[in-house]
Every structure is written in structure tokens, then in C-alpha cells.
Write a structure and sequence with these properties.
The complex is a heterodimer of chains A (615) and B (83). Helix content of chain A is 39%, strand content 13%. With 615 residues, chain A is an alpha+beta fold. The chains are: A alpha+beta (615), B alpha+beta (83).
């Protein structure tokens, strides 16, 4: 079986590391990674716990397919109660760290308590030790990872760490591994910082055993063949990356622009995949350097880029004049269109700062957009911003806000609290484009109806990675649906949510589902794990996980009233494009969604539903 | 009588020489359909996946009969995705 059977429990208060067997009964019901780690969190913590208190736990989790020969098997997740939302937080990352952790012999690492002073966890196979990190506190992700790799003297160690944002409790701080891959959303980095845990270093040479190696090779090869031959995963994503969406989403009139004042951005092309590939006049180079793959990934969708060395953001800063990860679509949108900024090099710089100091670019960009809207409306002035004149499209003030937030300076401290708290503080809560306190991503629900229901019901707050109906409503994958109608969207969202929860618990990447179905993925889990893993069981596990997360949020104090969208999206119609005149019609979708979920009319799972799912 | 013609991602190489930022104004022939424009511009049909007219999706069957009109914007992508 491809679970290692080992959980590492790290008591940061006591300074101890202990090993215990993985609860295999739970593994059979929740698979691994997102599902299994959430089950541990639910069983071991009070849902009403203060997310930044020592009583919150934080779990680094791999899935049964992590580090196997299955395609895209580099995924791992961080699960905790989230400080940005107060809801369940589960943030997924790629790179190589997760595979290394699994290779060292661990299904999960559970962090509890809080260290008196900064520490890092050093793992080599079954040996784990907490070490002093006083000299690393105050350092960036880039400095921390380089220092720890040098200290170990082993180029093959993998590191996950926090930067200044996690230390300063920015509520959307990320945990960054492999220098530019991130468990980015919901503020898991702030939880890590609250525990005085600076980094985790891991080297693993144990390997992973699977239940039926020949069957896994056969099913993995079949999946790889589909991924290679599919036009999206074989050509589109590796060649153009996620950023190809910029012009598409703008053309369909669903690009949230200037804090959702508009649904189309006239600067979209300037910050798109096509622009990244254009040769610059200044240095004869393109912004885009290459694509990049995570562990075991045949898709290779990630972008690596280099900022124009003559650009004002970096011309006196050699530390940024190297290649780093990004821009990806969500970051380019949030840092760009959400603020009306069309300077590709400035956005790349802002994204590099997010990599360097561990910030979620979606929440950062969206919160800056909200701040500009507050300024625009007169709710804040230069007195509040420390002298900065905020305006949409002003690259210089945008960059200043990014830097201040990363460093925890001045008005940046308020940006670091997220747009919900920021807008509430200044008396304009309706200007916060959030659901359950989390900033939503790059799809305006007025132009893509299903994404409204997706955001409203997402357990970790607004998110596209819980149910990517854009795939169907815009891209026609696996089949085209009309983005402007609400009929059928409740079922579509539920189906995406359940399948995604399964994939997120397996150790593989959700991007495989552009080409693979559950019928392709379940056989790989079946070959790796003991037990009978049919596609029906795979999806049922996803549904169980979704309901477990929902119940956790209800126990934490959320109700059906939180399944809503910002007023702007429900009342102010789109002004341009194919969705002109449309608002999001959430009220037409939500009751049917509750019914399909087996929840009562207030959004609470019924006893029958919980019983059917063994919850 | 012109339309705005846009090709993105791997289709960009099929843009007319005067195109800028993946977009070109082109002449429209009387009663010309989407498929006819695609063929006239020598865009390989097998590479055409996402077709938007004024931002609205046209499926493969509609492209043969949908007649374009003055001022329309026709935008086309090969199979791509993201997120």
C-alpha cells in the first residue's frame, strides 16, 4: 500500500518529535492529503479555536499517490483552521517538497503547540529534530531556503518555509517550497509563523511501496498517454501556461477589473501569456524564460520569468534580476486587472516579492484593489495611507503597497489583514470582494454564473480550486455549458467539488482533470492502495470530505447566511461584454444545490446525509 | 465592411501581417460565415477549438452557418486551459 503508515507528531511547545501509526481506518474513508489531514484536524481540535493560537494545529500531508510513478504525483497540502476566514483551510502545493516528505517515510506531519523561540524541523528519513532558527527569523523564503540547503551540504534537500509575511501574521501569508511553489491560500503561513516554525527541511531516501506495482505502472502509463495526447495537457498548458486565460476571460466579459467595478480590462493583453512571450525592446529578451514541471509531472505548466533589468522596480536590486516562478494567471489578474495595472514587469516584480516573502498574490492584489476603491470613495485618505495617493492604474503606488505589505510597514500592515477587515474598519464592508473573508479569484460571477455558486459555497472561502466550472462554462471541458444560465449549475458545481476533493486527497494535481476523468484516476489509487478503489468510491470519498469540511465550518460558527456573494455582484450589473446587464443569480442556484447535497434549507447537512456518508 | 479578427496562443502565426497585439481589422465578404473566414485566413480547422463572436461561444456546428456582420469581433483559440 502506498500510505507509509507513519505520522510524525511535532509538539512545538515541548520541543518533541514522536512517531505514531497512520490511522488506517480513516485513510480508507478519507484517502490522504486534504481528506485525511482534515479528518485528523476535526478529531483533534476545537472548531472554535483561535487560528493563531497554540491550540490550532497545522498538518503537512501527502497523498497515497504522492511520490509514486503516477503522473503529477508531487502534490502535498497544508491543513489547519484558517486565520483569514475562521473556516477550514487547506492549501495545496506542488514542487518537490511533498514527494521528498513522502520519500522520507511520512504520510503526514502534525504540528501542535508553539515554540518559545524560532525553530525549524530537520527531517532525514525517520530522524526528525527541531533546531534553532533564531538566525533565520527575519529572513526571506529565498534566504532561508538557500541557507538551510547550504547548511545541510546536500543539494537534494527540500525546504518549505515562511518569509516575513508569515512571521508578521499577514492573514494570507503562504508557505513556500522549492523557492517559488506555494501553499498559497487562506493564510497557512500565518499559522506556521504563529507557532514560531520558520521552516521544514527534508531529505528522503526510503521510497514508496505500492500495493500492485505492475497495475500502477499500467494505469499510470495509460494516464500519461492520455495527458500527452490531449491538446490541452500535451500542448496548450506546457506551451502557453495558465496565463493564456487572460485574453479569453476578458473576451467573455468575466475579468474582474478595478475591484469588480468592471468585467473587462483594456490592459488585459499587456499582462497576458502572449505579452509574456513578446521580445522586449530594452534588453532583447522576453519576460517568459521557460516552462517548468513539478515532481513527476508530464504537463509542465508553470512559468518561469525574468524581469526587465532596466525596469524601475529592479534596476538597483540585483537580488530580483534572476529567474523565478510566475506569472500565473490568477496572480497576473489579482495584481494587475484588479488594480487596473497593466505593467507586466511591475506585476512580475510583485509576484517575485510574493515568492520571496511568502504572500498569496490573489488576496494581496484583491486587497490592494479594495484599498484603492476605499480611497476612490473617500473612505480613506492620504492620512491613512501614509501619504500614498491610491488610484487604479497607478503602478508606482501599487508597487509601494506591495512592498509595504511584504515588510509589514505602515499602511501595509492594514493591507496584510485582508480586504474584509480593511473595508469593515473604514465602514465600507460592501467593497470587500470576498466570501467567508477570502478574496475571490479571477472570474467574475456575473459573466460565469456557476462560479458564483462555487465561490459562495467553497468551504475555505472564495476559491476557484474547489470547483472549476470555468472548464465547462468557458473552455468546453469536458463539455460546454452556457456561462449565462443558472440551470444545471448546482449539479455541475457539486460534481466538480466532489471530484476535486478526491483528487486533492490522492497526491496528484487537479490539472490532470482537463484530460483525465475519475475513470482514469481511480485505477491508479486502486493499484497503489489496499482495498477496492472504484471511481464511485473515489467520488464518494470526495463527497464525504466536502461534508466533513462543511460540518467543521458550521461547528466553527458559519451558517447558510455565509453562502453569499458581495452585493456588487448580486446588484450591480456588468457594464460591458456578453454579460452586459447580468448580475449573478445565486438565489436561483443555491436552494437546488442544498437539495442535491442532502442539506436542509438553511444549508446544514441532514442526519440522513451524514449517516449515509459515515460522518 | 470590416470585422476585428483575433487569434491567440498557437494560432497567432496565422494573423495577417498588419496585426497588432493579436488583433487585426479585416475585410468581410458578403454573407461570410465564421468557417469561411477561418478558411480564408488559412487557420487550420483542426487547431480551432474556442470560437467567440463578440465574446459569445459558437460550437462547431454553428460556425458553418453563423454569418458575421460589420463590426463583429471574432476571436479564436486552440485547445487551452488554465486556472
Amino acid at each position: 500500500m502506498s500510505w507509509t503508515g507513519n505520522v510524525l507528531r511535532v509538539d512545538l511547545s515541548a520541543g518533541t518529535c514522536t512517531t505514531e501509526p497512520t490511522n488506517m481506518e480513516w485513510a480508507h474513508d478519507y484517502m490522504g492529503q486534504r481528506g485525511l489531514a482534515t479528518k485528523y484536524l476535526v478529531e483533534e481540535t476545537d472548531p472554535k479555536v483561535d487560528p493563531l493560537s497554540p491550540d490550532n494545529k497545522m498538518i503537512f500531508a501527502t497523498g497515497p499517490l504522492t511520490s509514486t510513478i503516477a503522473p503529477t504525483s508531487g502534490r502535498w497540502s497544508v491543513v489547519c483552521k484558517g486565520p483569514l476566514t475562521g473556516a477550514i483551510a487547506c492549501s495545496n502545493s506542488g514542487g518537490f517538497f511533498g514527494a521528498e516528505l513522502k520519500n522520507a517515510g511520512w504520510d503526514m506531519v502534525i504540528f501542535e503547540g508553539k515554540s518559545d523561540s524560532p525553530v525549524y524541523l530537520d527531517i532525514t528519513n525517520d530522524q526528525a529534530e527541531l533546531k534553532d532558527a533564531s538566525d533565520l527569523w527575519g529572513k526571506s523564503v529565498w534566504e532561508t531556503e538557500t541557507t538551510l540547503r547550504d547548511r545541510r551540504g546536500d543539494p537534494d534537500v527540500r525546504v518549505a518555509s515562511i518569509g516575513l509575511a508569515g512571521e508578521n501574521a499577514v492573514l494570507y501569508a503562504a508557505i513556500v517550497n522549492d523557492l517559488d511553489r506555494a501553499a498559497g491560500r487562506s493564510g497557512v503561513g500565518a499559522v506556521m509563523g504563529s507557532k514560531h516554525l520558520k521552516a521544514v527541511v527534508v531529505r528522503g531516501t526510503v521510497g514508496v511501496k505500492v500495493a500492485d506495482p505492475m497495475a500502477l505502472m499500467k494505469s499510470s502509463n495509460a494516464a500519461k498517454e492520455i495527458l500527452a495526447e490531449h491538446a490541452v495537457t500535451g500542448t496548450g498548458l506546457p506551451t502557453h501556461g495558465t496565463q493564456v486565460l487572460m485574453n479569453i476571460i476578458n473576451e467573455v466579459g468575466a475579468l474582474p477589473t478595478r475591484n469588480c467595478q468592471d468585467v473587462q480590462f483594456d490592459g488585459a493583453h499587456d499582462i497576458s501569456a502572449e505579452a509574456m512571450a513578446e521580445v522586449r525592446e530594452s534588453d532583447g529578451q522576453a519576460n517568459l524564460v521557460s516552462n517548468h514541471a513539478c515532481f513527476g509531472c508530464p504537463i509542465s505548466c508553470a512559468r518561469r520569468s525574468k524581469i526587465d533589468p532596466t525596469h524601475f522596480t529592479v534596476k538597483d536590486k540585483p537580488e530580483y534580476q534572476h529567474v523565478s516562478g510566475g506569472l500565473e494567471y490568477e496572480a497576473a489578474w489579482a495584481l494587475g486587472a484588479a488594480n487596473g495595472v497593466n505593467d507586466l514587469e511591475a506585476l512580475t516584480y510583485a509576484n517575485f516579492v510574493c515568492n520571496e516573502q511568502g504572500l498569496d498574490p490573489i488576496s494581496l492584489g484583491s486587497t490592494i484593489g479594495a484599498a484603492i476603491d476605499l480611497y476612490d470613495s473617500g473612505a480613506i485618505t492620504q492620512e491613512d495611507t501614509g501619504g500614498l495617493a491610491l488610484e487604479f492604474g497607478n503602478t508606482e503606488s501599487f508597487v509601494a503597497m506591495v512592498e509595504a505589505t511584504a515588510r509589514g510597514e505602515g499602511f501595509g500592515k492594514e493591507i496584510g489583514q485582508g480586504s474584509k477587515r480593511l473595508c469593515e474598519k473604514y465602514g465600507r464592508p460592501e467593497l470587500s470582494m470576498t466570501v467567508k473573508g477570502q478574496e475571490f479569484p479571477a472570474y467574475d460571477p456575473r459573466g460565469i454564473q456557476g462560479m458564483g455558486l462555487t465561490y459562495a459555497t467553497s468551504n475555505r472561502g472564495a476559491c476557484h480550486l474547489r470547483s472549476y466550472t470555468v472548464s465547462s462554462e468557458v473552455l468546453g471541458l469536458p463539455e460546454k455549458t452556457d456561462p449565462h444560465v443558472t440551470e444545471g449549475k448546482a449539479g455541475l458545481v457539486k460534481a466538480f467539488q466532489d471530484l476535486t476533493a478526491g483528487v486533492d486527497s490522492s497526491g496528484t494535481c487537479i490539472f490532470t482533470t482537463f484530460a483525465l476523468s475519475g475513470d482514469d484516476i481511480a485505477p491508479m489509487v486502486d493499484a497503489s492502495c489496499e482495498g477496492d478503489w472504484s471511481v464511485e468510491r473515489f467520488v464518494e470519498v470526495g463527497e464525504r470530505i466536502w461534508n466533513m469540511e462543511r460540518q467543521y465550518n458550521i461547528d466553527a460558527g458559519f451558517t447558510g447566511a455565509d453562502d453569499t456573494l458581495p452585493e456588487r455582484l448580486l446588484k450591480d450589473a456588468a457594464k460591458t461584454g456578453p454579460a452586459k446587464g447580468h448580475v449573478n443569480r445565486l438565489d436561483e442556484m443555491l436552494p437546488e444545490y442544498y437539495e442535491l447535497r442532502g442539506w436542509d434549507t438553511s444549508g446544514v447537512p441532514t442526519r440522513e446525509t451524514l449517516s449515509r456518508l459515515g460522518l | 465592411m470590416t470585422i476585428t479578427f483575433k487569434l491567440y496562443a498557437g494560432l497567432s502565426e496565422h494573423l495577417p501581417a498588419h496585426a497588432r497585439r493579436n488583433s487585426a481589422e479585416i475585410e468581410l465578404l458578403p454573407n461570410e460565415t465564421v468557417d469561411q473566414v477561418i478558411d480564408r485566413q488559412q487557420v487550420p480547422r483542426e487547431d480551432v477549438h474556442l470560437v467567440l463572436v463578440n465574446g459569445n461561444y459558437l460550437d462547431e456546428g454553428q460556425r458553418a452557418t453563423h454569418v458575421l456582420t460589420k463590426g463583429d469581433t471574432l476571436a479564436i483559440w486552440p485547445p487551452v486551459a488554465g486556472g
